[in-house]
Amino acid sequence: MGVAVERSKLLRIGVDVGGTNTDGVVLDPSRALDENKGILAWHKAPTTTNPSLGINDAITTMFQSANISPDQVASVTIGTTHFVNAVVERDATRLSRVAVLRLCGPFSKYAPPCIDWPEDMRELILGHYALLKGGLEVDGYLIGDIDEASIRAQCALIREKGIRSVVVNGVFSPIDTVERQEERAAAVVRAEIPGCDVVCSKEVANLGFLERENAAILNASILTFARKTIRSFQEPVKRLGLDCPVFITQNDGTILSGDMAARLPIRTFSSGPTNSMRGAAFLVQNELDEAMMVVDIGGTTTDVGLLLANGFPRQQAAYSDLAGVRMNFSCPDVKSIGLGGGSIVRSGETLTVGPDSVGYKLTEAARVFGGKECLTATDCAVLADGALEIGNRELVKGVLDEQGIAKYKAVVKHKLEKIIDMMKTSPEDLPVLLVGGGAVIAPDQLKGASKVLKPKWSGVANAIGAAIARVSAVVDTVKSTESKTTQEILKEICQDAIERVVANGASRSTAKVVEMDVLPLPYIANKSRFTVRAAGDLDYSRTDFATLHFEESSEADVQMDEYEKTAQRVERKTKLEPKEEVDIDSYRPTVKDRIWYVNETDLDWITIGCYILGTGGGGSPYQYMLKLRQMLRRGDVVRVVSPDDLPDDAAVATTGHAGSPTVGIEKLGGDEMTQAQLELYKVCDRQPTHIISVEIGGGNGLQSLIVGASTNMDLPAVDGDWMGRAYPTRWQTTPVVFNERSPIWSPVSMTDGNGNVVIVPTAASDLQVERILRAALSTLGSAVGCADPPVTGAEAKRWTVENTISQSWRIGRAVAKARKSNRVDHVAETILQECGGPEAGQVLWKGKIVGVHRTLRNGHVYGECVIEGADVIDDDDAVPDKQALRKKDTSAVQFQGKIKIPFKNENIAAIKLSLSVVDGEIVETEDEVLGLVPDLITVIDAQNGEAIGTPEYRYGLLVIVLGITASERWTSERGVEIGGPKSFDMNHLTYKPLGKFVKPLGVIDEFNVNS
Predict the structure, then answer these.
(1) Mean pLDDT across the stretch 719-723?
(2) How far apart, in whole angstroms, are the C-alpha atoms of residue 661 and residue 543?
């Protein structure tokens, strides 16, 4: 369909090549404010086996309908799901085997490439890997230089295996602008394996070693298929006589040149939702110039995303998941619910809509089209709206009475309002755009929406989004703030981002910074992470846009046909035994003769619990979980004993990691924890018989299990720790609280895993030990293992916060049970039950994060998180009437207003805010203290029950705030002085216990079996 146009070279063609349909649109941007939005022609048809045929048909049809000449077209931009589909479908014909060369020195060996991938994906793609010399510290100092001879030796092995795709991944490579280790290693590989594909990880994603590597591996695996696919995109453009550049849309709604997309196809994986959102916004551009929610209602699901005022979608937080592979490249934050035009409606005492759907059979199964088996949302929409002309209205007459229709409308309205509220980042109403073929089921008014719009041409919003895509560039780096202020550095990085976006093809007059973030790095002197994104409109006056040049081949069509016709999963070389699903209610851990033998199920639950007990700090236990899981799979024995069973003359060693969580996600651990213990006992006469973690919170909660494993020190871990949580300093531990001797923590050793050791034989006080170690920490790369001298069994029994490994296990089990039964809405109450019941803690707050502020002082990240009260329960099926609300959780009523959580690495307090008048202005002031250290204030994700660390706080997250009463080890006068508000410089607050401490029930005590 189309309208005739005058001839001039300014038209943009947008094409969306989906798995089902290929959509096309011809757009004249100079007429974007006209009634027709500048849309001259549009086309929708089934996607063809060879994409070039579908693209050719779409463009030809549009040219004919609008009388358009090829010389009028300025650009062709294509969005596609072909690459992501190849990964999701595990298509062996489209995915190549990949070799991985890590430049990591002694680090990361316990988390080899693809360690956390689904087994079938790992076997399909990973063909070879090697851990080689190289890598940088966070300050740019060398872990070690690369060894070209070792790289050449690995290339010989890669050649023998016939692998033609290689990934090079170096520690802290995204900030490596001087040594350029990845680039140098890649040059060696290209020389040794001529014609191979080499992917440098720094080109693919940013900080986050495993996640960046995962993305680079997937990118490398699909390169051959990507080149051929993009050629199939370009061929019809050339065949039709179009003399213009061809671009591919990427995840953030901006464009890649054809050659860039062929090198980095992974950047296109999530472009579909982004194109839909930006296309919808374009259709209402003369009506709105603010942030807006785009609700795309299809036949089965509704996808919702927030389009920011800068014109780009809000991006996901730290990590994204694709086909079970965890990555950290930029993706739009889109939530989906089971609601669409084909959703099945069931009426009864409670009317439900979805989540099951008739899907693509809507035109056969819906009552309005003659179907008889079920009632669909489209049927009900026709009943509810007399003006809606879909199918035969007579066929649904009387299937619902007036009350039933009212219930249907209320359920659909509630579902949409719920998902919209979940995606909002502030309480203010904002415009909502309804697009997609199922938008007819949505009401014209929604709570939380300032207006509801259903724009014309929303059915080809993806193609429109492609046609209007802009140019972008991102700078993500770590810089020193020692000689320059943060603002000075930020200004320089912003200018760098502008120059990069212009180099990428944007016109300088339109280039501007659209997003920036600064994150101070804890425990690292004068270091911050800066992230800046710039964007601009494409400069069509330029003639230097790169295009791919392929050898001419008449077999191109056949090759693409073969991809589709022979696409299949690779035949497995090894048969995987299906993993037996654990029955959580009947599961019993292995405890024999009062020794608990930890297995993978236990580890999963302990890991979840450790992060929740971390009270926002301690760093994620994820990498340590991977390490310990590998150890268990190779046959390591991990033992846990009760502190009650310690002999008085036992020697209990302490282990713990110190450093920045930001370093921890990039420089994965080696042997520094065990090395610290070995170095300590060179100067400490008494050999250990047991081992305990310095803190249960965060990653340190797993260290006693790792260091004590049978292939390390072969020591039983004590079911307890010295904190019962996470604290930012070593002197905030129970042995210091008891003050029976001083100092406790000397001699002490600290190692970086790279041959550097610090020993403190003696010190004046435990506070001095902390100061000495902190001074050395930055020099050692801000990630070290520490070993403290053993205490006696008698001392340990007095000082230990008891059964905290058991408590972590129980918390993790509660979260797993809530997920399995789809009752995450009650996970907070279940966790509290495992921590001693309602006497021992409280749900302090439920709501949405609406503000986060951070600053760096003395190596620690201080800040505060503001949470607005909200209903976080994902209960969108029941009719939201007053009776139902009385039965539901009362959080919508109970948690009104805002609280703030101040933190110093870990959460310090939860304080209610109130509005006051100061100097004639209304301001927020502190009101009731809901919870305060040493009690545990922990924030969990309301959608999955997982802990959220302070570095992960971001706008819009729905959260639950738990308060758990501290161990009685902390509630003495000296305990409150060391671990209470005064130790965090909050002298104006007075500690009052949340409740009564209940000692966690030990797993050993409950499940022991004597032989």
Answers:
(1) 98
(2) 45
- d(Cα 257, Cα 248) in Å, to the nearest integer? 6
Q: Are strands 246-249 and 255-257 parallel, antiparallel or unpaired?
A: antiparallel
Q: Which two tokens stand for residue 259?
A: 């050659």
Identify the H or E element spanning 795: helix 793-799
Neighbours of 825 (CB within 10 A): 21
Tokens 């009552």 correspond to 367
Separation of CA 666 from chain center: 15
Pairing of strands 449-453, 430-435: parallel
Cβ contacts of residue 147 below 8 Å, gap of 6+?
132, 133, 134
Amino acid at residue number 972? S
Answer whether residue 644 shows pLDDT above 70. yes
Half-sphere exposure for 615 (CA within 13 Å, toward CB): 29
Q: Tens digit of pLDDT for each residue in 98-152?
A: 999 999 999 999 999 999 899 999 999 999 999 999 999 988 889 999 999 999 9
Bridge partners (DSSP) of residue 166 are: 99, 198
The angle formed by the CA atoms of residues 835, 958 and 327, to the nearest 5 degrees, is 95
Backbone angles phi, psi at 948, to 5 degrees: -120, 120
Q: Cα 399–400–401 angle (5° rounding)?
A: 130
Higher pLDDT, 716 or 828: 716
**pLDDT higher at 993 or 953:** 993
The 3-state secondary structure of 605-663 reads HHHHHHHHHCCCCCCCCHHHHHHHHHHHHCCCCCEEECHHHCCCCCEEEEEEEEECHHH
In this predicted model, what pLDDT tens digit does every residue of 742-771 receive, in sequence order? 999 999 999 999 999 999 999 999 989 989
**What percent of the chain has pLDDT above 70?**
89
Cβ within 8 Å of residue 466, ≥6 positions away: 14, 15, 16, 77, 78, 79, 249, 275, 279
Q: Tokens 């990845």 sit at which residue? A: 182
What is the overall mean pLDDT for the chain?
86
Q: Phi first, then psi: what are they for 115, rounded to 5°?
A: -60, -35
What integer pLDDT is reported at residue 880 of this predicted model?
A: 43
Interval 301-316: pLDDT, tens: 788 888 877 666 776 6
Q: State the residue for tokens 């009690």.
A: 935
Single pTM value for the model: 0.80
Looking at residue 702, the DSSP 8-state letter turns out to be G
The amino acid sitting at 583 is D
Q: How many helices (H) and strands (E) does the chain have?
A: 29, 41
| Residues 424-468 pLDDT 10s | 766 678 889 988 778 889 999 998 899 998 888 887 888 998 998
Rg, C-alpha atoms of the chain: 30
**Consecutive H or E run containing 517:** strand 512-520
Helix (H) or strand (E) holding 500: helix 486-503
822: left (phi over 0), alpha (psi -120 to 50) or beta: left
Strands 527-536, 651-659: pairing is unpaired
Q: CA-to-CA distance for 522 and 905, rounded, in angstroms? A: 8
